[in-house]
Amino acid sequence: MKKDKNKIKPGEVLLVAEPFVATLSSKFRTERCDYCFQPSQLLKCSACQYVYYCNNDCQRYAWKEHKGECKNLKRIQPRVVPDAARTMAKLIIKLNSASGSMEKGYYSKSSYRMFKDLMSHYPDVKKDKVRMEHFATLCAVLNDFLGPDVLPNPVEMLGIYGRLCVNGFNICDPDMTSIGVGIYLAPTIIDHSCDPNAVAVFEQRTISIRAIKELSAPLDWDKVFISYIDLMSDTNERQQELLSTYYFLCQCSRCTNDQERSLMKSMLCPNPECGEPIFVNDIKDGDDNVVDLSCSKCEAIVKDETFKEFKEVSDFTDMHLKTMKDVAYLDVCNLCLRKQAGLFHPMNIQHLKTLDAAYQSAIQMNQFETALRYGKQLIPGFREYFGQYHPSYAILLLMLAKILVYVENFKEAAVYLKESEKIIEITHGKQHTLYRQDFLPLLFQTQAALGKI
User: Fold this and answer.
1) CATH class (in words) of the domain with range 7-20+87-246
2) Which of 52, 22, 57 has the alpha carbon at shortest distance from 39?
């Protein structure tokens, strides 16, 4: 088939970039190489005794960046530099060198970005009480870590800090777990949308921007969008996160879609034969008596006590989701799900977040049948809110296939593998670690069990 030169197809790579600076999260310091971020048998830096590398090559490649911090990491021990301070220190050291301050990240043959081109949102950060408190703390740490002679003046420091806050990428492993932070120059050209047409994925520290929808050629970067945030949040949460983190009010197609906004907070029709969502987002807080709330399809009336129960369960769920932000407890998730049954529509975002927490917790506890039950219920919601092609959707399907292989249900595993492959080919490509080291072994094992090899 002849390739359409006027179209960029889903799966095509739009941009590949190495980090201007990158910092491995300190909680993975003894598990992953400080240079390539890969999990491996590690060797400690003999000088600072703080960072670890998987081999001499990585240590040699890292030295250009590490040499400016090595002696200081050793000097301050047993204290540990916070991740944000370490990233700031790397930026300051690099920008103090001529080569670093002039480094260019190309997003076309002739167009590039330098660190000074990145938006700092200086006035916004200056007015942001939380960030200014964090900045003051960082300045004190950096003054001790690097010394006052190395630090730029306060105005330049705040500009560097603002650029880090607004332009930093969470570097993720193949499972979409954040393992570090990086500043990438060229990719900062790309704006946000909650309905993105491109996705950022990582291979070690290398970022790739890949199309997930058809785009017009030649590429217009003003029409390329990735998501800066987790899309599995309701409209108000997404807009608030974007406003507080990136200082803009998102008005993308999803944020202005009233029907989706309503679906994310919807009740389930009380008629057990119906299953339609009932939109309740226009009901004001404190208004427990609703006279005219009914199903638009079957016209079933929602009783006042049913709506009151829905609100109580919603508040109960919200409280527990917040307390389980870092660690999910399966018994708490099960309790929330029991309370939600018959009240929350399957596309209600609180219900989906509870399901996701229960699913992740069940996996951690090796309760694989429970994980399968909850994971399968997540599929429609992930497909709806992440879209047809998204790494998180692909990983859900792949993990379900992995569990099915483990419990030796190879026939069903083959179905999920087929679906995940379609997505991974678009979001990651066949050369990515996720495809080669996670997908292919499962595929071969499944095919062998089914007698197809």
Assistant:
1) mainly beta
2) 52
For residue 224, count CB atoms less than 10 angstroms from its CB and return exposed for 0-12, middle for 13-18, buried for 19 or more: buried
For residues 263 and 108, give the distance between their C-alpha atoms in angstroms, rounded to a whole number.
Answer: 40
Kindly list the domain boundaries of the chain, sorted by start residue.
7-20+87-246, 30-79
3-class DSSP assignment, residue 203: strand
Among candidate residues 255, 260, 341, the one with its CA nearest the CA of residue 306: 341
Q: Looking at residue 6, what is its pLDDT? A: 84
- Is residue 185 classed exposed, middle or buried when 0-12, 13-18 and 19+ CB atoms within 10 A define those classes? buried
The predicted model gives 355-381 an average pLDDT of: 96
Largest separation between any pair of C-alpha atoms in the chain: 73
CA distance 244 to 247: 6
- Within 10 Å of residue 4's Cβ, how many Cβ atoms? 10
- DSSP labels, 92-151: HHHHTSHHHHT--EESSSS-EE-GGGS---HHHHHH-HHHHHHHHHHHHHHHHHT-TTTS
Structure tokens belonging to residue 374: 């909850």
Read off the pLDDT band of 1 (50, 70, 90): very low
Say what the alpha-carbon torsion angle 23, 25, 31, 33 is, to the nearest 10 degrees.
Answer: 0
CA distance 401 to 380: 16
User: What is the rounded CA–CA span in Å between residue 232 and residue 239?
Assistant: 12
pLDDT tens-digit readout, 433-453: 999 999 999 999 999 999 865
DSSP letters for 281-304 = TTSPTT----SS-B-TTT-PBPPH
Determine phi and psi for 366, rounding to 5 degrees. 60, 25
- Long-range contacts from 317-325, C-beta under 8 angstroms, 24+ separation: 317/350, 317/351, 317/354, 318/350, 321/350, 321/353, 321/354, 321/357, 324/357
Q: What is the rounded CA–CA span in Å between residue 405 and residue 427? A: 23
Q: What is each CA distance from 68 to 19, 63, 72, 399, in whole angstroms?
A: 17, 9, 8, 41
Q: Is the pLDDT of residue 225 over 50?
A: yes
- Kindly state the DSSP code that residue 438 receives in the 8-state scheme: I
CA distance 323 to 158: 33
Q: Across-strand partners of 170? A: 181
Helical axes 235-246 vs 154-167, angle rounded to 10°: 150
Nearest alpha carbon to residue 278 among 270, 290, 264, 268: 268
For the stretch 174-205, pLDDT in tens is 999 999 999 999 999 999 999 999 999 999 99
Does residue 288 have a pLDDT over 70? no
pLDDT digits (tens, 9 = 90+) for 33-72: 999 999 999 999 999 999 999 999 999 999 999 999 999 9
Contacts for 8 with CB less than 8 Å, ≥ 6 apart:
14, 211, 214, 215, 216, 217, 219
